[in-house]
Amino acid sequence: MIIDNTLLEHLSAKAVKTVRKRTNYNFHQTDDDLLQRMLNVIQPKSYVQPHKHQAPDKREVFIILQGQLLVILFNDDGSLKQTTILDRDKGVYGIEIAPECYHTIIALKANTCVYEVKDGPYNPDDDKTFAAWAPNEEDRTAAKAYLNTLIELGTTTR
Fold first, then answer.
1. Which of 48, 73, 143, 148 is deepest in the core (most CB within 10 A)?
2. pLDDT digits over 126-152, tens only?
3. CA–CA separation, 138 vs 84, rounded Å?
4. Which of 110, 140, 139 is nearest to 44 (CA)?
5. Cα–Cα separations (whole angstroms), residue 9 to 15, 85, 113, 114
6. Is the CB of residue 59 less than 8 Å from the CB of residue 97?
7. Segments of 4-76 assigned E as strands
């Protein structure tokens, strides 16, 4: 499996056309794989509702390939715990997120791409525990306002 510019360009073009402004490309063969590996291409203004991986507990790793990714970790009450901007040009290449830690990711540049690794297997019914204190992705107005707040907090509290 080769990761090259052709693949990233293809995924970037696909992500721009989706409603959620992101797409992934799986390297694992099935959802039962114990190590989930994928490329995740995210466009700016894509809102990922803060969530954590618990019951079953899962670690998650993001490694930046292109663009800039703001990673925000939260305390259980929704307050900010840590902000990190993954940016190859600044020498910040990746982050590993512990199980049971609320987090979100935000693309700060067009066609941001990360290599993502997460414990498997993947079951959509229990993969994520969404934060009750954050708007649902379907509530577009509230999600947009919250996303803008997160970007402001995450890029100024560094």
1. 48
2. 999 999 999 999 999 999 999 999 999
3. 26
4. 110
5. 10, 22, 10, 13
6. yes
7. 22-26, 35-42, 51-52, 60-66, 69-74
